[in-house]
Design the sequence.
């Protein structure tokens, strides 16, 4: 089937879509008792200051470093200044208080220990959204895994060690150039937020998939603090699938095997349901109660595979969800000075948590699960 489908994306687990931006030190303050981050425009803050305070703030920015900036803003933020509020955990609020109480620190220390990455947002409204390119990536991975199964292609990355093995595998599964790529005709639009969309700040923690008590090497580094879209948030948009047509002067279309929605939606179910169940079993072994399948069944019982289709997207969604079944060669870093290993499955998993090193397994959730509903 070709045409345009109206869709809703239901967020099932914390979702972060990277945009390369962070919350700037001159644009927020954390209200510790209320456990919210108050976000404001730096220009609004400057205009609200009295002239003597504005002059003093300028001197601090030039000469005193970020610690003084943080303290000044916390002490002088006008109560009536318009702010957008983002919930934070008790641990993050306490983290903020500890930063303010440090005797001194340099800029690098602040960046490494208190950098808060924003999720993709609309510039005018500051609301999060889902870029169509991110959705298309999830659709394409599921489709390529289906094609690999049909072609009985396995161990490609092991048998083809060239630098661009993954790209070569895609070209093998869908021969030709950009013009003949069937996914050129699949065009998801950006998905826009509804009133239900909420975000919060969470820590990203990295855990061994086989030992709940062992931290990974990545966890030993600086904290990762991400703005995540909350489960229960809903986005709306469209996916257009075009019929192939001949190029000017050609008798036949360059796309010989077009993508149909029926086959694409079937690919989503087969690819992502298997991943969700495998992950649930793995997390259960670590003592973590994964809520993903429970939430999906509660909301979409009887509609999965018909009008509702699982998928995964965004940051930390796992190497096994962005690579092709039967053809994985995942690089496993072994530490400084040691050559990496390669495996067909990741050895760690990233989880969203309210603490940088949580002791309770029950407060950790996997990133990036969602359900795409055809309206």
Sequence:
């Amino acid at each position: 089937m070709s045409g345009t489908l109206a869709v809703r994306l239901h967020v099932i687990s914390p979702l972060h879509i990277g945009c390369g931006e962070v919350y700037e030190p001159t644009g927020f303050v954390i209200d510790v008792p209320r456990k919210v981050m108050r976000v404001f425009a730096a220009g609004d803050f400057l205009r609200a200051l009295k002239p003597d305070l504005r002059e003093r703030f300028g001197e601090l920015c030039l000469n005193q470093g970020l610690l003084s900036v943080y303290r000044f803003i916390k002490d002088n933020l006008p109560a009536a200044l318009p702010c957008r509020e983002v919930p934070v955990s008790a641990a993050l609020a306490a983290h903020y208080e500890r930063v303010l109480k440090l005797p001194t620190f340099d800029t690098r220390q602040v960046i490494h220990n208190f950098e808060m990455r924003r999720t993709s947002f609309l510039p005018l409204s500051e609301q999060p959204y889902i870029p169509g390119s991110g959705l298309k990536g999830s659709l394409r991975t599921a489709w390529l895994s289906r094609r690999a199964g049909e072609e009985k292609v396995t161990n490609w990355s092991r048998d083809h060690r060239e630098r661009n093995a993954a790209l070569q595998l895609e070209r093998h599964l869908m021969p030709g150039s950009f013009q003949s790529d069937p996914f050129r005709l699949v065009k998801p639009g950006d998905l826009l937020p509804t009133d239900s969309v909420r975000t919060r700040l969470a820590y990203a923690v990295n855990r061994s998939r086989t030992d709940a008590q062992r931290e990974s090497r990545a966890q030993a580094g600086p904290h990762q603090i991400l703005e995540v879209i909350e489960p229960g948030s809903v986005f709306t948009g469209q996916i257009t699938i075009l019929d192939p047509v001949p190029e000017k002067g050609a008798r036949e279309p360059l796309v010989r095997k077009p993508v149909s929605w029926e086959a694409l939606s079937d690919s989503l179910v087969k690819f992502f349901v298997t991943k969700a169940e495998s992950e649930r079993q793995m997390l259960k072994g670590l003592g973590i109660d994964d809520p993903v399948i429970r939430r999906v069944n509660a909301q979409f019982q009887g509609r999965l595979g018909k009008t509702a289709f699982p998928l995964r997207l965004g940051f930390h969604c796992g190497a096994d969800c962005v690579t092709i079944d039967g053809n994985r060669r995942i690089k496993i870093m072994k530490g400084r000075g040691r050559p990496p290993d390669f495996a067909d499955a990741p050895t760690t998993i990233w989880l969203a948590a309210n603490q940088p090193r949580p002791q309770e397994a029950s407060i950790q959730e996997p990133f990036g699960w969602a359900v795409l509903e055809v309206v």
